[in-house]
Structures are given as C-alpha cells and as structure tokens.
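One-letter codes give the sequence; the fold follows as tokens. An example follows:
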Amino acid sequence: MIRIVCPFCHSPLNATDLETATLGDRVCLVCPECEHVLLMDDEAQAGPEVPVSAEAVEAHA
C-alpha cells in the first residue's frame, strides 16, 4: 500500500484517496482535502506547452 502525505496540507492519503481532474487537457491527481494539484501527466503526451507571460504569473502570486 502506498501512503502519500500532501506537501500543502500534510494530510496522509492513500493512492486511492486522490481525486482526478483535468487542467488544460492534462490529467492531474488532486488532494481531496486542500484541492492542490499533486501530480500531472507527462506534458509530452499532452501536446505543446502554452507560454505564460510574467504578468500572468505575477497576477496569480
């Protein structure tokens, strides 16, 4: 059995506890407690990466 500890909320989780979500055509595993993305699929399978401007990054900080 694999045990995972969320690095954001520190909740202990089983691999089966993780929720699956889609973010921009990429499959993600999400912590059910704090809803942070813990793992994304390989971007090579997802297609080309969308460039992000510095202004967009600063707006979300």
Observations:
- The chain has one domain: 3-60.
